[in-house]
Amino acid sequence: MSFDIGRILHEMGAFALVIVGTLAIMALAAVSVFVERLIAFAVHARKTRALTRDVGPLLSQNNYAGLLERCEQNKGLPFAEVLRGGARAFMATHADTHVPAYEMVRREVARRVEAATADVRRGMSVLASVGSVAPFVGLLGTVVGIIDAFEGIAAEGSGGIGAVSAGIAEALVVTAFGLLIAIPSVLMFNALSTKVDGIVLALGQAASEFADHVEARAPRAAPRVELPSLAKEHRHNGAALVV
Are 141 and 24 in contact (CB under 8 A)? Predict the structure, then answer.
């Protein structure tokens, strides 16, 4: 006997069709996220390579204003957002700040890396959910199909294979749909996770290198400031204690 998926779908009950429709929506969502992320990663890689070529000369000249302007032109790009935050933090640090400039930069780029990581992982939860939930959705359809098959046996009063074959076939088809959607979703999730891990690692390295660059050129501590009014009040053996 040939396997006619069209006939089985045509003979499905309302609940089974709802399950199949739900699985179809989940499959569409998973494929949409996968394609969108691939395109986004490709665009990010191209723009990042172009920005990297300009970052080196700007940093060698300590041209943080030019770096900030260049990063402003690439808003939304994770690499640009990290450098933009670091450059803004460095330029906003004043000489009388009690926290060293490089420490402010290191904190800011760390926050930017976390935010960029969340942006890069956008949509990954959809793939994870589809990969884990789709088999159970298919199993739900299987259970309902088997229940219908046994109800058919009870109605006919016989337990022949012909009485239950249609219901069992319908149930197994729904299970197969769930597995056919879950397996590719898991594979797509793993493929994107590998790319995301590489991007996050590169962002962390870029942030660390930028902070090291600032630390090598910025003062390690805020300059000491004499407070004459307090200095006059702290004298011991004729020597002033500068606060």
Answer: no
**What are the pLDDT digits (tens) for 155-206?**
665 555 655 666 677 778 888 889 999 999 999 999 999 999 999 999 999 8
A 10 A CB-CB count for 170 gives 23
Angle at 152 between CA 149 and CA 155, to 5 degrees: 155
Q: How many CA atoms lie within 13 A of 14 on its CB side?
A: 0
Specify whether the CB–CB gap between 199 and 44 falls below 8 A: yes
pTM attached to this predicted model: 0.75
Please choose, from the candidates 228, 3, 222, the residue with its C-alpha nearest in 3D space to the C-alpha of residue 96.
222
CA atoms within 13 A on the CB side of 95: 3
Number of domains in the chain: 1
Query: Which neighbouring-strand residues pair with 240?
Result: 235
| Cβ 179 vs Cβ 135: under 8 Å | yes
Domain ranges, residue 141: 5-240
